[in-house]
Every structure is written in C-alpha cells, then in structure tokens.
Amino acid sequence: MKRDSPDGDILWIGHRGSPRHYPENSIEGYRAVLEAGGRHIETDVQLSADGIPFLCHDVELSRLIGLEENLFNLDSQTICELPLAYPERFGTRFENIRFSPLASLAILLQAYPDATAFIEIKEESAAQYGVEAVTEAVLTIMDPVAHQCVFLSFDPDVVQHLGKVSKTATGWVIPEWNDENRDLAETLNPQWLFCNRKRLPIANRDVWQGDWNWVLYTINEMGEGEKLCERGFRYLETDRILDILRGQS
User: Is this model's pTM higher than 0.85 or not?
Assistant: First the structure.
C-alpha cells in the first residue's frame, strides 16, 4: 500500500460538503467548509435534461426536495428554481437554498487556490447521456481549476475515458473488494482509489499495492479515523468536517 505521507496527519475530506450542517452538495456547504479552513471537499455531479452538470447525488429528488421529481426530466432553469432544502433532516431551515450548477463550484475554487475538489461523475448520468458527453461537459466547465480537481467515478468506463482525454488526476470508486476489481484497478491505474471503509481488509498486507492514494469513506468518529491513519490511510471522507475543524469530537 502506498503511504500518502510520513507525517501521520489525517486529511479530512468534506463528504458532499458538510451534510450534518447544510444540505448536501450545496454551494453554501462547500463555502462553509473552505471558510472554516478545510481544504478537501467531495461532490457528486449529475446532468440535467439539457446537459448541464449540477452538484447532486440523487436522480430521484424526493429525499432532497420533498417532491417526487426525476432530475433527468428537468431542464437546468427548472432545477435552479428548486429548493434544495433536504427537509427530512433540516425541515424548512434551508428552504431558500437552491441547487447549484457545477460552474458555481469552479468559481468557488478560484477563491481558494489551495483547495482540492474530488468530483464524482455519477454512473446514472453516464448511462443516461453517454460517457463521452458527460465527461466533456464536466471537464469543460472545470477546466480553469482542473489542477485543483480529481475526477472520479464508480463507472470504470468513465475513469478509463478520463485517462484518455485529460491529463487531470483520476480516481475510481471500488464497488466491491475482490480479485476482479483489483485487476481492473491495475488496468485503470488511477491516481486515487476510493473505498467504503466497511469493505477494507482487516490486514494491511491484503490491501492492494499500487502507485495510488487511498480515500476511505465515510468516517464520522475521530477514534476510527485515528486508527485508520495509524494504518497509513490519511485521506478520510466525513459528514462531520465542520465539527472536526472546530475541534469537536
């Protein structure tokens, strides 16, 4: 396993921004993380019916807006008018927050040149619109800040295509821990591998060796993060990044 750095500090990544404090994938949440001193954020990207990338995880929007809507049936103007309130968690607290196009993240990153964004291109959009169209839309918008980005996906075809058409860093989210996917990781040869912490082998000797950095998700307890860091895993995604940055356990 490649060890990220000898200094042993955890590098916390704001998973979908700061979903314990703001609606997930909201530009307000990302701004709060960066203003608090965080320098690693993760976001999801889906495309609208007219091909505009938005910061969004779900295609079915009921969890996010409290209404039965499908993102692929909505154009960008309509999506921009939807309240990203996340009512099941926040009630009406954030009813004035709206969905953000990916372009808004590019603008935000320009104000924080030392920040890194891990941008996950969702496999649903790749299946709906095609790998080439989705990756082109995302890369075009993020080109001014591409050096601050890592582009990743569960879909190995997306990762492979990114490696062919762009010199930016790529990542693959491992769907399952097995020999077939280990071989696929070696073929894709991304700079980053993302893994659900529950899929991680108990012994370090069983962790795939390669010239990549590991990111584990989602770790919300400091004690668990410290144990993983002792094993050499420093990049950890969390829903509690604002609590961590504020020194709250």
Answer: yes
